[in-house]
Design goal:
6-stranded parallel β-sheet; 8 strands; binds zinc ion
């Protein structure tokens, strides 16, 4: 079956673009739910409630300035058994700034993100030099294997569930956002996504 690069990068692209994690463990039926751009009081606690209901863990790539504003949400995410990752301090697009500025911004987020060594570049974009610098500082750079497009109002929750069903495979990292833009459509899709994955025999883990 031919995939659609809007939802999943071809194996060749994933292979060529190295030094990043596109997929987790490919040897077993495991998938990883990830949420970017939070934490936010109107969205993140509702995601946590759903995850708690199904007893599944997830990984949250947080924006430093949100984490600084809502430290109690950072704490809540960690206490409920989830992992946090760095998503820069203010959702910086890598290629637009120098590597030095980029790394300073990442380090600034690090302070409020308890020194996590998981990193996801906003927009999935960074220069080769930035990728190298991140790897040298011990960051594990995680992209994704399945893009739900939850941030795009053109996608209904039904379409998001359909994307997950069509593209999830062993080790898939599934990308969602606990952001204002994704809010209701993402929250409507999430229980269906988890139920589907569990029914298919996937174990959900953190990165
Ligand atoms: Zn983002």
């Amino acid at each position: 079956m031919i995939g659609d690069i809007r939802y999943q990068m071809p194996a060749m692209v994933q292979w060529l673009y190295r030094g990043v994690t596109w997929r987790g463990d490919k040897t077993r039926k495991v998938a990883y739910l990830t949420f970017d751009d939070g934490p936010l009081p109107m969205v993140t606690p509702r995601v946590l409630e759903i995850l708690k209901h199904y007893q599944v863990p997830a990984t949250f790539f947080m924006v430093g300035e949100n984490a600084e504003r809502y430290p109690e949400l950072v704490q809540m995410v960690i206490e409920e058994g989830h992992k946090i990752g760095n998503h820069t301090f203010n959702h910086l697009k890598g290629i637009r700034v120098t590597t030095k500025d980029y790394m300073n911004n990442v380090a600034k987020a690090d302070v409020v993100l308890q020194g996590t060594r998981l990193f996801r570049p906003p927009y999935g974009k960074m220069s080769g030099a930035q990728k190298k610098a991140l790897n040298e500082r011990g960051y594990r750079i995680c992209l994704w294997d399945v893009l739900t497009h939850d941030y795009d109002a053109a996608y209904s929750s039904e379409q998001m569930v359909a994307i997950v069903k069509r593209y999830t495979r062993h080790g898939s990292i599934i990308n969602f956002h606990d952001s204002v833009k994704s809010n209701e459509r993402m929250l409507a899709a999430l229980p269906q996504v988890i139920e589907y994955l569990q029914n298919e025999g996937y174990v959900l883990e953190t990165l």
